[in-house]
Recover the amino acids of this structure.
Protein backbone atom coordinates (compact mmCIF):
# COMPACT_ATOMS: atom_id res chain seq x y z
CA UNK A 1 0.00 0.00 0.00
CA UNK A 2 2.89 2.36 0.69
CA UNK A 3 4.24 1.81 -2.83
CA UNK A 4 0.79 2.59 -4.16
CA UNK A 5 0.73 6.02 -2.56
CA UNK A 6 4.34 6.78 -3.43
CA UNK A 7 3.42 6.04 -7.05
CA UNK A 8 0.38 8.30 -6.70
CA UNK A 9 2.57 11.14 -5.44
CA UNK A 10 4.95 10.70 -8.37
CA UNK A 11 2.02 10.57 -10.77
CA UNK A 12 0.75 13.90 -9.44
CA UNK A 13 4.19 15.45 -9.92
CA UNK A 14 4.35 14.18 -13.51
CA UNK A 15 0.88 15.53 -14.28
CA UNK A 16 1.70 18.86 -12.60
CA UNK A 17 4.93 19.20 -14.60
CA UNK A 18 3.21 18.47 -17.92
CA UNK A 19 0.30 20.71 -16.94
CA UNK A 20 2.65 23.63 -16.27
CA UNK A 21 4.11 23.22 -19.77
CA UNK A 22 0.61 23.16 -21.21
CA UNK A 23 -0.36 26.32 -19.32
CA UNK A 24 2.71 28.22 -20.56
CA UNK A 25 2.33 27.29 -24.23
CA UNK A 26 -1.47 27.08 -24.34
CA UNK A 27 -3.02 25.73 -27.53
CA UNK A 28 0.35 25.75 -29.31
CA UNK A 29 0.91 22.28 -27.83
CA UNK A 30 -2.08 20.26 -29.00
CA UNK A 31 -3.33 17.14 -30.78
CA UNK A 32 -5.08 17.56 -34.14
CA UNK A 33 -6.98 20.74 -33.16
CA UNK A 34 -6.12 23.60 -30.71
CA UNK A 35 -9.05 22.64 -28.47
CA UNK A 36 -7.19 19.40 -27.69
CA UNK A 37 -4.33 21.27 -26.06
CA UNK A 38 -2.07 19.65 -23.49
CA UNK A 39 -3.64 21.56 -20.61
CA UNK A 40 -7.18 20.62 -21.71
CA UNK A 41 -6.26 16.96 -22.14
CA UNK A 42 -4.73 16.85 -18.66
CA UNK A 43 -7.66 18.64 -17.01
CA UNK A 44 -9.86 15.51 -16.47
CA UNK A 45 -6.93 13.54 -15.02
CA UNK A 46 -6.02 16.33 -12.61
CA UNK A 47 -9.67 16.82 -11.68
CA UNK A 48 -10.03 13.15 -10.75
CA UNK A 49 -6.84 13.22 -8.66
CA UNK A 50 -7.93 16.41 -6.90
CA UNK A 51 -11.36 14.99 -6.08
CA UNK A 52 -9.76 11.80 -4.78
CA UNK A 53 -7.23 13.57 -2.55
CA UNK A 54 -9.28 16.53 -1.35
CA UNK A 55 -11.04 14.66 1.53
CA UNK A 56 -7.66 13.34 2.73
CA UNK A 57 -5.96 16.74 2.96
CA UNK A 58 -6.37 18.75 6.12
CA UNK A 59 -6.39 22.12 4.42
CA UNK A 60 -6.56 25.26 6.53
CA UNK A 61 -9.66 27.43 6.70
CA UNK A 62 -8.03 29.97 4.40
CA UNK A 63 -7.27 27.34 1.75
CA UNK A 64 -10.79 25.92 1.99
CA UNK A 65 -12.31 29.40 1.71
CA UNK A 66 -10.27 30.26 -1.38
CA UNK A 67 -11.14 26.92 -2.99
CA UNK A 68 -14.83 27.45 -2.26
CA UNK A 69 -14.72 31.00 -3.70
CA UNK A 70 -13.07 29.72 -6.89
CA UNK A 71 -15.72 27.00 -7.09
CA UNK A 72 -18.45 29.65 -6.81
CA UNK A 73 -16.75 31.58 -9.61
CA UNK A 74 -16.91 28.47 -11.80
CA UNK A 75 -20.59 28.09 -10.96
CA UNK A 76 -21.25 31.73 -11.86
CA UNK A 77 -19.51 31.27 -15.22
CA UNK A 78 -21.38 28.06 -16.02
CA UNK A 79 -24.70 29.67 -15.06
CA UNK A 80 -24.14 32.40 -17.66
CA UNK A 81 -23.69 29.65 -20.27
CA UNK A 82 -27.39 28.85 -19.79
CA UNK A 83 -28.33 32.39 -20.82
CA UNK A 84 -25.66 33.19 -23.43
CA UNK A 85 -25.20 30.31 -25.83
CA UNK A 86 -22.00 31.17 -27.65
CA UNK A 87 -18.49 29.80 -28.11
CA UNK A 88 -16.92 32.61 -26.07
CA UNK A 89 -19.01 31.70 -23.03
CA UNK A 90 -18.02 28.05 -23.27
CA UNK A 91 -14.34 29.01 -23.50
CA UNK A 92 -14.55 31.05 -20.31
CA UNK A 93 -16.33 28.15 -18.59
CA UNK A 94 -13.44 25.80 -19.29
CA UNK A 95 -10.86 28.44 -18.36
CA UNK A 96 -12.61 28.96 -15.01
CA UNK A 97 -12.11 25.25 -14.27
CA UNK A 98 -8.42 25.63 -15.05
CA UNK A 99 -8.09 28.47 -12.52
CA UNK A 100 -9.72 26.33 -9.82
CA UNK A 101 -7.59 23.28 -10.62
CA UNK A 102 -4.40 25.37 -10.68
CA UNK A 103 -4.99 26.51 -7.12
CA UNK A 104 -5.62 22.97 -5.89
CA UNK A 105 -2.77 21.27 -7.74
CA UNK A 106 -0.22 23.91 -6.74
CA UNK A 107 -1.37 23.51 -3.14
CA UNK A 108 -0.89 19.74 -3.30
CA UNK A 109 2.50 19.87 -4.98
CA UNK A 110 4.03 22.67 -2.89
CA UNK A 111 2.62 21.60 0.46
CA UNK A 112 2.77 17.82 0.33
CA UNK A 113 5.72 17.04 -1.93
CA UNK A 114 9.36 16.64 -0.99
CA UNK A 115 10.46 19.01 -3.73
CA UNK A 116 12.95 21.58 -2.44
CA UNK A 117 12.94 25.30 -3.18
CA UNK A 118 15.95 24.75 -5.44
CA UNK A 119 14.09 22.11 -7.48
CA UNK A 120 11.11 24.40 -7.91
CA UNK A 121 13.46 27.15 -9.09
CA UNK A 122 15.33 24.93 -11.55
CA UNK A 123 12.13 23.64 -13.18
CA UNK A 124 10.51 27.02 -13.69
CA UNK A 125 13.80 28.67 -14.62
CA UNK A 126 14.18 26.17 -17.50
CA UNK A 127 10.52 26.62 -18.42
CA UNK A 128 10.96 30.40 -18.56
CA UNK A 129 14.13 30.15 -20.67
CA UNK A 130 12.24 27.86 -23.07
CA UNK A 131 9.36 30.37 -23.28
CA UNK A 132 11.66 33.27 -24.12
CA UNK A 133 13.82 31.40 -26.62
CA UNK A 134 10.89 29.78 -28.44
CA UNK A 135 9.05 33.13 -28.61
CA UNK A 136 12.09 34.77 -30.20
CA UNK A 137 12.57 31.84 -32.61
CA UNK A 138 8.91 32.01 -33.61
CA UNK A 139 9.34 35.75 -34.19
CA UNK A 140 12.35 35.06 -36.43
CA UNK A 141 10.28 32.41 -38.18
CA UNK A 142 7.59 34.97 -38.96
CA UNK A 143 10.32 37.09 -40.55
CA UNK A 144 11.38 34.12 -42.68
CA UNK A 145 14.80 33.75 -41.05
CA UNK A 146 14.13 30.29 -39.55
CA UNK A 147 11.23 27.81 -39.80
CA UNK A 148 8.23 28.70 -37.62
CA UNK A 149 7.64 26.56 -34.53
CA UNK A 150 3.87 26.82 -34.36
CA UNK A 151 1.04 28.11 -36.53
CA UNK A 152 -0.11 31.64 -35.73
CA UNK A 153 -3.79 32.31 -35.12
CA UNK A 154 -3.61 35.43 -37.24
CA UNK A 155 -1.18 36.68 -39.84
CA UNK A 156 -0.63 40.31 -38.95
CA UNK A 157 2.65 41.68 -40.36
CA UNK A 158 4.33 43.88 -37.74
CA UNK A 159 7.86 43.58 -39.04
CA UNK A 160 10.60 43.68 -36.42
CA UNK A 161 8.39 45.64 -34.04
CA UNK A 162 6.54 42.76 -32.42
CA UNK A 163 7.21 39.50 -30.57
CA UNK A 164 3.96 37.77 -29.69
CA UNK A 165 4.87 34.47 -28.04
CA UNK A 166 2.60 31.41 -27.75
CA UNK A 167 -0.46 33.50 -26.85
CA UNK A 168 -0.22 35.47 -30.10
CA UNK A 169 -0.35 38.75 -28.17
CA UNK A 170 2.71 40.82 -27.18
CA UNK A 171 1.04 42.24 -24.06
CA UNK A 172 0.13 38.76 -22.82
CA UNK A 173 3.71 37.63 -23.38
CA UNK A 174 5.05 40.67 -21.51
CA UNK A 175 2.84 39.95 -18.50
CA UNK A 176 3.84 36.28 -18.45
CA UNK A 177 7.53 37.22 -18.59
CA UNK A 178 7.22 39.88 -15.90
CA UNK A 179 5.50 37.49 -13.50
CA UNK A 180 7.96 34.71 -14.27
CA UNK A 181 10.85 37.11 -13.68
CA UNK A 182 9.47 38.39 -10.37
CA UNK A 183 8.96 34.88 -9.01
CA UNK A 184 12.32 33.54 -10.22
CA UNK A 185 14.33 36.59 -9.15
CA UNK A 186 12.89 36.27 -5.65
CA UNK A 187 13.74 32.58 -5.58
CA UNK A 188 17.26 33.22 -6.90
CA UNK A 189 17.77 35.78 -4.13
CA UNK A 190 16.63 33.30 -1.47
CA UNK A 191 18.86 30.56 -2.87
CA UNK A 192 21.88 32.79 -3.45
CA UNK A 193 22.00 32.16 -7.22
CA UNK A 194 23.80 35.32 -8.38
CA UNK A 195 24.51 34.17 -11.93
CA UNK A 196 20.89 33.12 -12.38
CA UNK A 197 19.76 36.61 -11.34
CA UNK A 198 21.98 38.18 -14.02
CA UNK A 199 20.58 35.84 -16.68
CA UNK A 200 17.01 36.58 -15.57
CA UNK A 201 17.50 40.34 -15.74
CA UNK A 202 19.12 40.13 -19.19
CA UNK A 203 16.61 37.90 -20.96
CA UNK A 204 13.60 39.60 -19.36
CA UNK A 205 14.74 43.07 -20.37
CA UNK A 206 15.32 41.89 -23.95
CA UNK A 207 11.94 40.19 -24.33
CA UNK A 208 10.05 43.10 -22.73
CA UNK A 209 11.69 45.60 -25.07
CA UNK A 210 10.79 43.40 -28.04
CA UNK A 211 7.15 43.21 -26.95
CA UNK A 212 7.08 47.01 -26.54
CA UNK A 213 4.69 46.76 -23.60
CA UNK A 214 5.09 50.13 -21.87
CA UNK A 215 3.60 49.31 -18.48
CA UNK A 216 5.51 46.03 -18.26
CA UNK A 217 8.81 47.80 -19.01
CA UNK A 218 8.07 50.48 -16.41
CA UNK A 219 7.11 47.86 -13.81
CA UNK A 220 10.24 45.87 -14.63
CA UNK A 221 12.43 48.73 -13.41
CA UNK A 222 10.03 49.56 -10.57
CA UNK A 223 10.32 45.99 -9.32
CA UNK A 224 13.88 46.58 -8.11
CA UNK A 225 12.75 49.57 -6.06
CA UNK A 226 10.08 47.61 -4.25
CA UNK A 227 12.41 44.64 -3.87
CA UNK A 228 14.56 46.93 -1.72
CA UNK A 229 11.54 47.42 0.54
CA UNK A 230 11.07 43.64 0.67
CA UNK A 231 14.71 43.36 1.80
CA UNK A 232 14.13 46.20 4.30
CA UNK A 233 16.81 48.39 2.72
CA UNK A 234 14.82 51.58 3.16
CA UNK A 235 17.70 54.05 2.75
CA UNK A 236 18.67 52.55 -0.61
CA UNK A 237 15.01 52.62 -1.59
CA UNK A 238 14.73 56.35 -0.88
CA UNK A 239 17.94 57.11 -2.78
CA UNK A 240 16.94 54.97 -5.75
CA UNK A 241 13.39 56.37 -5.83
CA UNK A 242 14.67 59.95 -5.77
CA UNK A 243 17.08 59.20 -8.61
CA UNK A 244 14.36 57.56 -10.69
CA UNK A 245 11.95 60.45 -10.17
CA UNK A 246 14.66 62.90 -11.24
CA UNK A 247 15.38 60.90 -14.40
CA UNK A 248 11.67 60.59 -15.21
CA UNK A 249 11.18 64.34 -14.78
CA UNK A 250 14.16 65.09 -17.01
CA UNK A 251 12.93 62.60 -19.62
CA UNK A 252 9.43 64.08 -19.56
CA UNK A 253 10.83 67.56 -20.20
CA UNK A 254 13.02 66.22 -23.01
CA UNK A 255 10.10 64.67 -24.93
CA UNK A 256 7.73 67.62 -24.66
CA UNK A 257 8.36 68.67 -28.25
CA UNK A 258 8.64 65.16 -29.64
CA UNK A 259 6.45 64.52 -32.70
CA UNK A 260 5.05 61.18 -33.93
CA UNK A 261 7.30 59.29 -36.32
CA UNK A 262 6.09 57.49 -39.44
CA UNK A 263 8.14 54.55 -40.67
CA UNK A 264 9.22 54.93 -44.30
CA UNK A 265 10.37 51.32 -44.64
CA UNK A 266 10.46 48.01 -42.76
CA UNK A 267 13.78 48.72 -41.04
CA UNK A 268 12.36 51.85 -39.37
CA UNK A 269 9.27 50.21 -37.87
CA UNK A 270 10.89 49.26 -34.56
CA UNK A 271 12.29 52.76 -34.00
CA UNK A 272 9.05 54.49 -35.00
CA UNK A 273 6.89 52.23 -32.85
CA UNK A 274 9.00 52.88 -29.76
CA UNK A 275 9.02 56.64 -30.27
CA UNK A 276 5.26 56.73 -30.79
CA UNK A 277 4.66 54.68 -27.66
CA UNK A 278 6.77 57.11 -25.64
CA UNK A 279 4.64 59.94 -27.03
CA UNK A 280 1.52 58.00 -26.02
CA UNK A 281 2.78 57.85 -22.43
CA UNK A 282 3.31 61.63 -22.51
CA UNK A 283 -0.19 62.20 -23.88
CA UNK A 284 -1.93 59.59 -21.73
CA UNK A 285 -4.20 62.17 -20.08
CA UNK A 286 -5.49 63.52 -23.39
CA UNK A 287 -8.97 62.07 -23.78
CA UNK A 288 -9.07 62.91 -27.48
CA UNK A 289 -6.09 60.70 -28.28
CA UNK A 290 -6.44 57.53 -30.32
CA UNK A 291 -3.72 55.54 -28.53
CA UNK A 292 -4.53 52.42 -26.54
CA UNK A 293 -3.67 54.27 -23.31
CA UNK A 294 -6.24 57.03 -23.97
CA UNK A 295 -8.85 54.49 -25.05
CA UNK A 296 -8.40 52.52 -21.85
CA UNK A 297 -8.77 55.62 -19.68
CA UNK A 298 -11.93 56.53 -21.58
CA UNK A 299 -13.18 52.98 -21.14
CA UNK A 300 -12.54 53.00 -17.39
CA UNK A 301 -14.23 56.38 -16.98
CA UNK A 302 -17.26 55.27 -19.01
CA UNK A 303 -17.57 52.06 -16.98
CA UNK A 304 -17.60 53.78 -13.59
CA UNK A 305 -19.98 56.48 -14.83
CA UNK A 306 -22.40 53.74 -15.95
CA UNK A 307 -21.71 51.17 -13.27
CA UNK A 308 -25.43 50.91 -12.48
CA UNK A 309 -25.82 49.15 -15.84
CA UNK A 310 -23.14 46.58 -14.95
CA UNK A 311 -24.93 44.78 -12.13
CA UNK A 312 -26.18 41.93 -14.30
CA UNK A 313 -23.98 40.01 -16.74
CA UNK A 314 -23.81 40.71 -20.46
CA UNK A 315 -21.98 37.47 -21.25
CA UNK A 316 -18.51 36.89 -22.63
CA UNK A 317 -17.75 38.84 -25.78
CA UNK A 318 -20.95 40.92 -25.58
CA UNK A 319 -19.25 44.06 -24.31
CA UNK A 320 -20.57 46.20 -27.17
CA UNK A 321 -23.99 45.99 -25.48
CA UNK A 322 -22.55 47.98 -22.58
CA UNK A 323 -20.37 50.42 -24.53
CA UNK A 324 -23.14 52.25 -26.33
CA UNK A 325 -23.33 55.94 -27.31
CA UNK A 326 -19.73 56.55 -26.28
CA UNK A 327 -17.90 59.76 -27.16
CA UNK A 328 -14.80 57.81 -28.19
CA UNK A 329 -14.01 55.05 -30.65
CA UNK A 330 -15.16 51.92 -28.82
CA UNK A 331 -14.35 49.38 -31.53
CA UNK A 332 -11.32 48.01 -29.61
CA UNK A 333 -12.86 48.21 -26.15
CA UNK A 334 -16.07 46.51 -27.31
CA UNK A 335 -14.06 43.42 -28.23
CA UNK A 336 -12.31 43.36 -24.86
CA UNK A 337 -12.34 45.97 -22.05
CA UNK A 338 -8.61 45.36 -21.30
CA UNK A 339 -9.40 45.39 -17.60
CA UNK A 340 -9.76 42.36 -15.38
CA UNK A 341 -12.34 44.03 -13.12
CA UNK A 342 -14.44 45.41 -15.98
CA UNK A 343 -14.24 42.21 -18.01
CA UNK A 344 -15.29 39.92 -15.16
CA UNK A 345 -18.09 42.29 -14.12
CA UNK A 346 -19.57 42.71 -17.59
CA UNK A 347 -19.21 39.03 -18.49
CA UNK A 348 -20.45 37.38 -15.27
CA UNK A 349 -22.03 40.11 -13.15
CA UNK A 350 -20.90 41.85 -9.97
CA UNK A 351 -20.49 38.53 -8.13
CA UNK A 352 -17.27 37.72 -10.06
CA UNK A 353 -15.14 40.71 -8.94
CA UNK A 354 -16.48 40.31 -5.39
CA UNK A 355 -15.32 36.70 -5.33
CA UNK A 356 -11.86 37.61 -6.62
CA UNK A 357 -11.61 40.44 -4.09
CA UNK A 358 -12.41 37.92 -1.35
CA UNK A 359 -9.77 35.51 -2.72
CA UNK A 360 -7.06 38.19 -2.68
CA UNK A 361 -8.12 39.28 0.80
CA UNK A 362 -7.90 35.73 2.17
CA UNK A 363 -4.51 35.12 0.57
CA UNK A 364 -3.01 38.37 1.87
CA UNK A 365 -4.53 37.81 5.31
CA UNK A 366 -3.07 34.31 5.46
CA UNK A 367 0.37 35.58 4.42
CA UNK A 368 0.31 38.36 7.03
CA UNK A 369 -0.71 35.89 9.73
CA UNK A 370 2.06 33.48 8.76
CA UNK A 371 5.63 34.03 9.97
CA UNK A 372 7.21 32.84 6.74
CA UNK A 373 8.17 34.87 3.66
CA UNK A 374 5.86 37.79 2.83
CA UNK A 375 7.06 38.31 -0.75
CA UNK A 376 3.55 37.41 -1.93
CA UNK A 377 2.32 40.87 -0.90
CA UNK A 378 4.75 42.49 -3.35
CA UNK A 379 3.96 39.92 -6.03
CA UNK A 380 0.20 40.38 -5.60
CA UNK A 381 0.62 44.14 -6.02
CA UNK A 382 2.49 43.54 -9.27
CA UNK A 383 -0.18 41.12 -10.37
CA UNK A 384 -2.97 43.66 -9.83
CA UNK A 385 -1.06 46.24 -11.89
CA UNK A 386 -0.10 43.88 -14.70
CA UNK A 387 -3.57 42.39 -15.20
CA UNK A 388 -4.64 45.57 -16.98
CA UNK A 389 -1.96 45.09 -19.65
CA UNK A 390 -3.20 42.00 -21.55
CA UNK A 391 -6.51 41.62 -23.34
CA UNK A 392 -7.69 39.07 -20.78
CA UNK A 393 -6.19 37.13 -17.86
CA UNK A 394 -9.34 35.05 -17.43
CA UNK A 395 -8.11 33.19 -20.51
CA UNK A 396 -4.47 33.17 -19.45
CA UNK A 397 -4.37 30.50 -16.72
CA UNK A 398 -0.55 30.58 -16.68
CA UNK A 399 -0.61 33.91 -14.80
CA UNK A 400 -2.83 32.32 -12.14
CA UNK A 401 -0.37 29.44 -11.88
CA UNK A 402 2.40 31.91 -11.05
CA UNK A 403 0.22 33.81 -8.55
CA UNK A 404 -0.88 30.69 -6.67
CA UNK A 405 2.60 29.18 -6.85
CA UNK A 406 4.20 32.20 -5.16
CA UNK A 407 1.41 32.20 -2.57
CA UNK A 408 1.99 28.57 -1.63
CA UNK A 409 5.78 28.85 -1.78
CA UNK A 410 5.66 31.75 0.69
CA UNK A 411 3.77 29.46 3.09
CA UNK A 412 5.96 26.42 2.47
CA UNK A 413 7.97 25.21 5.44
CA UNK A 414 11.54 23.98 5.10
CA UNK A 415 10.45 20.49 6.12
CA UNK A 416 7.06 19.39 4.85
CA UNK A 417 5.11 16.18 5.06
CA UNK A 418 5.19 14.32 1.76
CA UNK A 419 2.03 13.38 -0.11
CA UNK A 420 2.87 9.67 0.15
CA UNK A 421 3.38 9.97 3.90
CA UNK A 422 0.15 11.91 4.31
CA UNK A 423 -2.01 9.45 2.40
CA UNK A 424 -0.38 6.46 4.06
CA UNK A 425 -0.99 8.02 7.47
CA UNK A 426 -4.64 8.56 6.60
CA UNK A 427 -4.92 4.98 5.37
CA UNK A 428 -3.51 3.57 8.62
CA UNK A 429 -5.92 5.66 10.69
CA UNK A 430 -8.87 4.51 8.61
CA UNK A 431 -7.84 0.83 9.01
CA UNK A 432 -7.66 1.00 12.82
CA UNK A 433 -10.63 -0.68 14.60
CA UNK A 434 -13.03 1.74 16.20
Amino acid sequence: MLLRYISLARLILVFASLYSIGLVFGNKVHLVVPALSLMNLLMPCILILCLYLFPKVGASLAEQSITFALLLYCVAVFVTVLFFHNAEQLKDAFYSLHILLIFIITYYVVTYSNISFSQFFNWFFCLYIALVLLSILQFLGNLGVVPTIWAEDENTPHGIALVRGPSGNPNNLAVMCMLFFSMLHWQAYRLGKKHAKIVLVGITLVILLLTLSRLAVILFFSYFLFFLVYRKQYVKFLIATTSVLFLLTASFVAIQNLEPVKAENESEVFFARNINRIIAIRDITKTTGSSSSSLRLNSYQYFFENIDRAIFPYGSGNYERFYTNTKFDNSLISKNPHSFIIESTLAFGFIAPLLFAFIFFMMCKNILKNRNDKFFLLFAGYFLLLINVPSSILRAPVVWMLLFLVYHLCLKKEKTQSLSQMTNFELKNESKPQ
Observations:
- The chain has 17 helices and no strands.
- The chain has two domains: 1-114+350-434, 128-282.
